Amino acid sequence: MELVCPAGNLPALKRAVDEGADAVYFGFQNTTNARQFAGLNFTDKRAREGIDYAHARGKRVFCAINTYPQPDGWDMWTRAVDQAADLGVDALIMADMGLLDYAARRHPDLARHLSVQGSATSHEALRFYHEQFGIKRAVLPRVLSITQVRDLAKKSPVELEVFAFGSLCIMAEGRCYLSSYLTGESPNTRGVCSPAAHVRWQETPEGLESRLNGVLIDRYGEGENAGYPTLCKGRFEVGGETYHAIEEPTSLNTLELLPELQDLGIAAVKIEGRQRSPAYVSRVAGIWRQALDRLERTPGHFHVEPAWMAGLGEVSEGSTTTLGAYERRWK
Amino acid sequence: MSATPRLQLSLGPVLFYWTRERYANFYREAADWPVEIIHLGESVCSRRRDMKLDDWLGLGRELTQSGKQVVLSSQTLIESEADLRDLRKLCDNGEFLVEANDQSALQRLATAGQPFVAGAALNLYNPAALAVLSRIGMQRWEAPVEMSRDDLTRLLADCRAQGLDAPCEVFAYGHLPLAWSSRCFTARRYQKPKDRCQFVCQKYPEGLALRTQEADQVFTLNGIQTLSGACQDLRHEVGDMAEMGVGVARLSPRPEGMAEVISAFDAARRGELPGPDPLSLVDAEICDGYWHGRPGMDHSRTAGLR
């Protein structure tokens, strides 16, 4: 299985490659990709440098152009596709049907991967993208149980990449408009979720409050760890109870599923986190490299090292991890 | 007899889990409402089985006799082989047009050469995406819920320039469908696993309010679906919609008061709805922000007060 790691900038890309990533993915410095953060992502020059660095070491580079071209911005998205093709990336990661169609016609020989933002959760949906746009690979949304992934993998017409580690989206990706409902900006339109420009922190007599565009997301008592106010991970009141009504602040970690994923014929495991530091990328890539090497060397005898779990726990949201939807009872 | 209005009205599928009696009563009334199109079917959760496909088909035939165009809406989040089997039956119904809410449905319908309606969750933001679906049989499409009036105006103009003439539908009234998950949030409130949810969502014919710790209702939980807390209401924008070339305004069913809502929209499309009184209080439960290029929860008449 290929280890696919996030590269938010050139140092992160190099660290990922050094620590054993088989492929890295990056985006340009605009709203054409789903991690639009200030100071993050690549200029043409940096991208060229990164691609040379990875290719010189036999590693692959994917370019994420996985937001939805907006009515006033078609040219910006097609320019990104052309630019990535000129740079010589190994694959484009896209979601929009119009952009997939454009890339298939303009750059037929450049591999197209369906982004998780394309919301394909069945083999029929994969077949649609395959027949219409000739996708080679698809990244699955984080909503399927391992049994459902198994059923899907049996009939998939394309290679599958699954999320292995990182922040956990619990809504079907590409079809979540919660962020724009509160802030006007969403993953689809602007490549952001719960954007930092709308975040306010305030000490009050009731505790430390986090707000998103004025909406109270959470309130922390003394001694409680305060997390970034991603809107679906706050504490809300439903039917007289106040709790993490949608999801707890936690990260996805599928280390223990590795043998099963390999058994299903999954082509690649993906690490989330282009917005995270080079240190995070380095740590996570290193641990997953060890785990994949162990899997390769001792088939049938794979076990998860406690040190790996501890290492990943330290860089996880809320310092906790979950198997998420892979495990049926999470639902 | 008055002229046929340029803008058609449609009833969206019922997003909540109602009882058989409630569906029956609702559609009995709907047969007489001034809407041209009615979407039927369960588009949210496959565990909701009070209404079988045959029940929807029966309802569809009755509504067709009342002069309505009936469309069957497909499930938005497809997860299992069982979901796919149900989807196939829906697509192969042989009588009614299908609204595709996922690429799984698109695949089925395109392969069978069946015309279809494209739902809002298909994320059609640009003419190139619309051109792809037009090639394979799209008859009508619903704009993404987060699209603004200005963006839609531009998109419709570009579509016309490219000869893409399938009518566009706008979500004009109701709690906005904003997200789908494999987790059931209503069952989670009751600490029940989804597989043994005991259908608790049926107790909430208009969903379960999710409020901030300051008691603002920001979202509405509806099983695996998350809706807006406020109800979007674009009744004062329908004249504008018709001017822009929008073909259909979608009204999403609520358990109470739909007859009044529909008659207000019907009056509005005939230019007979009085404008909003600038001095009246704005109902906190109403929003129209998306249409005005703002956060969806905002209301244009109170914008800037926050």
Which fold name fills CATH's third level, the topology of the largest domain in chain A?
TIM Barrel
What is the top-level CATH class of one domain in chain B? Alpha Beta
Which fold does the CATH topology of one domain in chain B refer to? TIM Barrel
Largest sheet of chain A: 8 strands, parallel, barrel
Strand proportion of chain A, as a percent range, falls in 15-25%
Distance between the ends of chain A: 27 Å
**Residue fraction in strands of chain B:** 15-25%
Structure classification of chain B: alpha/beta
Radius of gyration of chain B: 19 Å
Order of SSEs of chain B: EHEHEHEHEHEHEHEEEHEHE
- Specify the CATH architecture of one domain in chain B: Alpha-Beta Barrel
Supply the number of helical segments of chain B.
9
Which architecture of the largest domain in chain A would the CATH scheme give at its second level? Alpha-Beta Barrel
Task: Flag low-confidence runs of chain A.
Answer: none
- Shape, principal axes of CA atoms of chain A: globular
